[in-house]
Amino acid sequence: MRAISQKNKGNYLEILDMLAQEEQFVREKLESISGFKGTSSEIKNELIECATLVVKETIQKELDLAEFVSVQADETLDVSCKSQMSVIFRYCVNDSVQERF
Hints:
With about 100 residues, the chain is of the alpha+beta class. Helices cover about 45% and strands about 25% of the residues. The chain has helices at about 10-20, 25-30, 40-65; strands at about 70-75, 85-95, 95-100. α1 (about 10-20) packs across α2 (about 25-30) and α2 runs antiparallel to α3 (about 40-65). The longest helix has 25 residues, at about 40-65. It is globular. The model has no long low-confidence stretch (mean pLDDT about 80).
């Protein structure tokens, strides 16, 4: 396993930083956590829940504006034989086709 350099903090922390730049709610949550390292599973779960809420609200607003919506659902088993489902929404907002997973 290779070490993570200072420039590359790993996918989870990089995505979290990017999300915090755009979303005040996430930024405030990160600022309220002293000594954040991103390694605690409890903190990770809270931040994932927070990010999920932001994404859900954004998609819901876009879906409310769309005249037509296409929904595609697919299910498969992962390596531990647990069922995993993906849902894709496709819709058009302001003459732009959006696709959300």
